[in-house]
Amino acid sequence: MLRTRTAGRNAKLRRGERTLLTEEQNDRLTLVGPGTPMGELMRRYWQPIAGLSELKDNPTKAVRLLGEDLVLYRDESGVLGRIDASCAHRRVNMLFGIPEEHGLRCAYHGWLYDETGQCLEMPAESVDSTFSSRVKLKAYPVQSLGGLVFAYLGPEPAPLLPHYYPFVEEGRVRSIGWTLVTCNWLQIMENSLDPIHAEYLHGYFSKYVLQRLGVLNHRGDIYGKRPFEPNPDAQYWRKMSPSMRHASAACSRFEHGILKHRLLEGEAEESSIGWQIGHPIVFPNLESGTGGHDFQIRVPMDDTHTYYVYYYADPPREGEDTNQAEEDIPVYNVPIAGVDGDGLPIWGQLDNNSGQDHFAWTSQGARTKRHLEKLGQSDVGIILFRRMLSEQMQVVEDGGDPMNTVRDPEKNEIIWLPFDRMNDEVIDGKRATRKKEKAGGGGEMIPAGSSGKFKPRNIEHAKRMGAPVPPPFPSSAKTVVEVSPG
Amino acid sequence: MELNGVDPGTHLVTMSGDIVELLEVTGKGIIARVRYVEVLGGGGANVNDEESISIDDIATIDGDRFVGPPHTASTSA
Questions:
Q1: Domain range enclosing A354
Q2: Taking an 8 Å Cβ-Cβ cutoff, which residues of chain B contact chain A?
Q3: Is the N or the C terminus of chain A less surrounded, counting Cβ atoms within 10 Å?
Q4: What is the CATH number for A111?
Q5: What ipTM did this prediction achieve?
Q6: What are the average pLDDT values for consecutive 10-residue runs of chain A, which has 486 residues?
Q7: CB A351 within 8 A of CB A213
Q8: Helix or strand (DSSP H, E) at A84
Q9: What's the CATH architecture for B1-63?
Q10: Counted domains in chain A
């Protein structure tokens, strides 16, 4: 059959009038509730939902994951549970429950549940009643690793919780940042498959922001022909990032996901580690951070909210203890960029990579309308990722185990990933240290990347070194989503 | 994607992620006649459908590595 695009899904030949993805395809890729194709795929993976240290002061936490509202708790014997948020009796919120030696007790009439959701006690019922044995809340398995609490919502038997190296390698100092991002998880992940955005959003736009803030006298030009000009009178918390200029970009599949390849100006393909090895995106929702020992994890809470985790396993600075107990790994909030009362950008929120990313993702709308977008050839990473997601949804629909689910304990002792800034040991899929890893993970100034501006460890270090620290985070009047048509 | 020098029979990736086989390039080099080889769920095409599509609908050559444009505008400006 020969068809021309004079009718049907892609009616025109002229660029800009065709449909990249149908709305139905966009729904398949983005909706994560129970019974949706993507929701079923995501349920095959352990998802982080909290820092273990959060449960020291507050032993219960409300957690929305993949459209399901549950309560995470830690009982007095240290057992973690994640059960339905509403008591089976009168639907009172278990967030206000009382942790007992074994289980969580409802604050209203004292019904007690264990980590499987089984009701153990109904104090007001007859002592010889067997009613409690027939009452069970929905519950899901939880495990902690590296100071994070992970939940699994899929069918049993659950795969192993993957031991990626940042979670388990020795001799590191760990910290956990988090943000509630008010948009769908996929547009955040697609940012990771898009190496070019770093050149503009974190390069040229970043310098425009610094120009607006008076840190630069001039931002330079977009092609790097004219360099930026610092304001000699300005002292600011962040250091200037060198401009990154791509000669080409590519993405390839590997055992655990996708490798993002960059060839920068002046590099040769044969000798460029960034081109030859690449930067790992771990399927389906993790990206290795630029430090190589950190992750950014995008956890779908529901269709329009994402729990964003910045996980760091840094080399120790002098005097720092690398024997942190899991429950002592600090957790901090990374505030999200918004807009002022007039719906305009707040430049002081956008002077770092995480603020720039937050603004970009949320300004695409709560859930990007992909049927309206226009991709170019430089978007091949996004295209590959969508393709892999579609393939793996089909695997699940056919009853199989999707890629990167771990079931062999021997392979899960520690999972190393290739990384573009490592030494030659990377070639065999193993790696030890970064080529130029600095003790302490950087100089005295606070790195601008990801959530570095907000990491308490960085701020304390800068203060000790007498270096500038970030000004207070300006408050927002509205979210970016509220003022963005998407 | 410019298709100069790409041989008929080559598998290409469309912007929507489908895999197509190049049959011929027409329309002064801006239209590709293709046959669908693999299609993603939820779209309108079927395997073995033949269509004429714009070269702007083609992202890259299918293979182990999805490669972007050889030189971004920033490097040629």
A1: 165-483
A2: 1, 13, 15-17, 31, 40-45, 48-54, 56-57, 59-60, 64-72, 74-75, 77
A3: N
A4: 2.102.10.10
A5: 0.92
A6: 40 46 92 98 98 96 97 98 97 98 98 98 96 98 97 97 94 95 98 93 94 94 86 87 83 95 89 86 92 91 98 90 94 96 95 95 96 92 96 97 97 86 44 46 69 90 90 94 90
A7: yes
A8: strand A80-84
A9: Roll (2.30)
A10: 2
